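Changelog note: in this version the structure field was regenerated for every chain. One regenerated record is shown below for reference.
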Amino acid sequence: MIVRTLEEIIGSPTHVKGDVWESRRLLLAGDKMGFSLSDTVIKEGSEQRLHYKHHFEANYCISGRGEVVDVKSGKTFPIAPGTLYALDQHDEHILRATSGELRLVCVFYPALTGQEKHRADGSYAPPAAQGEPLR
């Protein structure tokens, strides 16, 4: 059994930050669950273009407001507490935090290792390139 608190993650090596986001990674590949789980905060007024070509991602909003744009269709979807959006087709997308900090519970498959860095195209490297064996 794995039991962790957000309090023990904040300020630890699994508390990862970018210019407009921070991700408190509660479960990672090393936990051998097959997926990772993060508590992520996106800064109000920010916009990120992302494209997880090698991962599936599901996000559940617990606070703040924003929107996600499907780049392929151009369709914009509002995000508010209680909203889920899932990138089930490796969807290229734009994520905006429009009112308050956008706080999301994020699940990635395959699991993140905790060492990922966004590449110029908004993706992470394939898991095998990060040293994580594919299952």
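Spot check on this record: The chain has one domain: 14-113. The chain has a mean pLDDT of 90.
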